[in-house]
Amino acid sequence: MARNEKTFDWRDYIAATTAVIAVLAAVTSLRAGSAASSLLLEKNNSNYYQAKANKEWNSYLANDIANRILKLANNQSDQQKLQQQVKGLEKQADDSTAKATAYFARNTELTTAGTFFEIAIAISAMGVLVKRKFVWIFSLLLSTVGIYFLVLGVM
């Protein structure tokens, strides 16, 4: 029996939805890569600010020891200025660590979404091979889970 060109078979819907799922997988992969890059940048900033804070604090301690040895009067304003600098750098380090943690969570969600999309694509293709509509419907359910994680990762 010849197939009528104007009617759609369920396999045509498989092709269309698989293309949409593939686009979602590509977008998810791009977003996950961006989140991973931001994670590494913020973690690097955190380490930088912490090292800088340690350097400032060590400088303060060295000056304090030198002042005690030479029995000079401690300059309170210098001491307070250094403490303020150290606190500011430690706050920057903590902020960068918090941002890195958030990017890590986002990257995890996006990677999970991408995995669901890729599995859905494979199962969708299997639906055509085994000629079973329920296999395709299962791939759509997996895509829905992928969309859920994509939304979590983007928000």
Description:
It contains three helices and no strands. With 155 residues, it is mostly helical. It has one domain (10-154). Helix 1 (10-69) runs antiparallel to helix 2, helix 1 packs parallel to helix 3 and helix 2 runs antiparallel to helix 3.
Main traits of this protein?
rod-shaped; 155 residues
Tally of separate domains = 1
| Secondary structure: helix percent | over 70%
Largest sheet: none
Q: How many strand segments?
A: 0
Shape: rod-shaped
Q: How big is the Rg?
A: 28 Å
SSE string: HHH
The quaternary structure here is single chain
User: Could you report the average pLDDT, rounded to the nearest whole number?
Assistant: 77
Helix/strand-derived category reads mainly alpha
Strand content: under 5%
Number of alpha- plus pi-helical segments:
3
Q: Cα distance, first to last residue?
A: 50 Å
Low-confidence stretches: none
Brief synopsis:
This protein is mainly alpha-helical. Helices cover 88% and strands 0% of the residues. The longest helix has 60 residues, at 10-69.
